[in-house]
Specification:
619 residues, eight-stranded antiparallel beta sheet, seven-stranded mixed beta sheet, disordered C terminus
Length: 619
């Protein structure tokens, strides 16, 4: 495996020769190479000033070279570099340039250029560089585009300019896990089961599929604990894109049926000792009594009381009663004495032309929530027929909030934050959710996604909720979901005291910003419909093609939930990311189109042969 290190005295001649071999690889003639040689030469006295770094094998064989240099490159003269290469001024937060980035021809295609590029971006961030300029020839342009560099104006003749905005890991992300790797515990079903969530089936299949999001519980995992088997290629592909490092341990297939992931780990003392005895933070989907025993934490179930929709509503009312949130409004809510009473209330409101939201006390992703409009009540066949379709258990009757009339205006928003172990709340950000008929389908995070007129009030209200949760003893992630009313006010709808789909998007955005430059927009889609059930080999091929083709658009594709591909109605959870809305939308459209088109010629027998195996360690 290659590693990067600073160049050493006495290596300048060997590195200069490597640069010329790399330049010649692209087919340049002898006269052109001779003209470039003086500019491409690395002198001994420049190794430190140009911040020259090399990539080498474990045996010390040189594989590549890069430099991070001060000051923009001037125009004119022969072009300076041939493999991936570039241009800017590190000290003082100015402009720096990637002056060199060359790979030994025999090592091209083995990830050496990627290693050196990511190392240069990280070093630039540590130096406080705000703009890293890269002037590349046409052979290198595809590489930089795939690495997330953004095309920019001002290139010298014959070159293509790219720009990167280096940043360190976001402060909230460093506070979440201390800036290092963590053990991710995919206990989705276990968390939901303690609330008798109406969405859970006997086998917990939906929740166990969603546990694949454990790959994104923090910016960088050290180990994943998963209830269902997952494909080997999946963790390797995600780990490569997010630069997880040498090895992430994956312990999967731990729960065949039922919700008890933490119980399953506790039943394996060697595994429990390995994941808890390394001094690494443990990050669950949400807190539960079995997880508390695994993590050695005191169990305080009262700290989760605001997971209840009626308790959260009461919390929101107290915050609003204190003033300071003029752009927030709380819809009326009452607990119905029975389901029949709830339906009668909704029917009475429908006769008056009003819509109603019927909610279970608990539920995820819209489960247990029904929007009753006059039209839907008639289509259902009246109140008695509607009653048969509602989830069992007590129901809350809530005023329906009508949204903005303008097409495309933001409607469903969310705030994410967390309370650290010392009881300090940390804001993470605001996201735009994709919700249809009360059911969550995905979310988008990033700069400008939520209009400023809504983002400020949303962040203020979310921070107020964080302070209340901290005072109530909650420790860990939380979010607050909102709907926007017709006049542009925010109506808080519920709180979730756990990780969420949007939280995975925030984690990926933080990681990609640190790897590829600031400003990523990230979209998570819970269920992208697949055209057929796929065997593992074909699913891997489809995802590899999407990764490659999204990179060509200047975007990132990550398969977020691969296990749904084997369901009777197959689907794939997906994340896409880009620096621009245009690239994000193009990548999103490509993923959905390609997913629907897969499966021609695949037999049902082939599609039922998943290759995953349990209890292993993979890259």
């Amino acid at each position: 495996m290659a590693k990067a290190r600073p160049a050493r005295p006495g290596e300048a001649a060997a590195l200069s020769a490597l640069v010329m071999r790399s330049k010649a690889y692209w087919g340049y003639g002898a006269d052109f190479l001779a003209a470039c040689a003086p500019q491409l030469r690395i002198r001994e006295e420049e190794l430190t000033a140009r911040r020259v770094t090399v990539a080498e094998t474990a045996r010390g064989e040189l594989l590549g070279v890069a430099s991070l240099e001060d000051g923009p490159q001037g125009a004119g003269g022969p072009e300076p570099a041939g493999g991936p290469e570039g241009a800017g001024s590190p000290e003082g937060g100015g402009v720096a340039r990637l002056g060199l980035l060359f790979v030994e021809p025999a090592a091209i295609g083995r990830g050496v250029g990627r290693l050196l590029y990511l190392d240069a971006v990280r070093r630039a961030a540590r130096l406080g560089v705000r703009r890293l300029l890269i002037d590349a020839d046409s052979h290198a342009a595809g590489f930089y585009r795939a690495m997330g560099a953004v095309p920019a104006a001002g290139a010298p003749p014959g070159l293509i300019r790219f720009e990167v905005a280096p940043v360190p890991l976001a402060p909230w992300a460093r506070a979440w896990t201390g800036g290092g790797a963590a053990v991710h515990v995919g206990n989705v079903a276990e968390f939901n089961a303690q609330f008798a969530d109406a969405s859970l089936d006997e086998g917990q299949r939906p929740a166990h599929d969603y546990a694949c999001l454990a790959a994104f519980y923090s910016p960088r995992p050290a180990a994943l604990l998963l209830p269902r088997p997952v494909p080997r290629w999946w963790t390797a592909a995600v780990g490569r894109t997010l630069d997880w490092g040498p090895e992430v341990e994956v312990y999967d297939g731990l729960v065949e049926r039922g919700p008890g992931l933490a119980e399953a780990v506790l039943a394996r003392p060697a595994l429990a000792g390995r994941v808890t005895g390394r001094g690494l933070p443990l990050v669950p989907w949400g807190l539960s009594e079995p997880y508390a025993r695994l993590a050695g934490l005191p169990w305080r179930p009262e700290a989760l009381r605001y997971e209840s929709k009626s308790a959260a509503h009461a919390l929101f009312a107290r915050i609003l009663a204190g003033g300071g949130h003029p752009q927030a409004v709380l819809p009326a809510q009452e607990r119905a004495a029975s389901r029949r009473v709830a339906v009668r209330r909704a029917a009475a409101r429908a006769r008056a032309g009003e819509s109603t939201v019927l909610k279970s006390e608990h539920g995820v992703g819209g489960s247990g929530t029904t929007v009753v409009t006059p039209e839907r009540l008639r289509a259902a066949g009246g109140p008695r027929a509607l009653l048969r379709r509602l989830p069992r258990g007590p129901l809350l009757v809530e005023e329906y909030v009508r949204g903005p009339a303008e097409p495309g205006a933001p409607r469903d928003l969310t705030y994410d934050g967390f309370v650290d172990g010392a009881g300090r709340p940390h804001p993470v950000g605001a996201a735009l959710m994709d919700v249809a008929d009360g059911a969550y389908r995905g979310a988008t995070v990033g700069p400008g996604v939520v209009p400023a007129a809504l983002e400020g009030p949303l962040l203020a209200f979310g921070a107020a909720v964080g302070r209340e949760l901290a005072a109530a003893g909650h420790r860990g992630w939380f979010d607050v979901d909102f709907v926007v009313d017709a006049s542009g006010r925010l109506a808080p709808a519920e709180a979730n005291l756990r990780l969420t789909g949007p939280s995975a998007a925030f984690m990926v955005a933080a990681r990609l910003d640190a790897l590829r430059g600031a400003g990523h927009l990230v979209r998570i889609a819970d269920r992208v419909e697949l055209g057929a059930r796929l065997p593992e080999a074909q699913l891997e091929e489809v995802c590899a093609g999407l990764t490659r083709d999204c990179a060509g658009l200047g975007a990132v594709f990550l398969p977020a939930i691969p296990t749904g591909a084997h369901d009777p109605a197959p689907w794939l959870g997906a994340l896409v990311a880009a620096h621009s809305r245009e690239a994000l939308e193009a990548a999103d459209a490509l993923v959905r189109e390609r997913a629907l088109a897969v499966g021609e010629g695949v037999t049902g027998e082939e599609a039922d042969q998943p290759e995953a195996r349990a209890g292993r360690r993979v890259r």
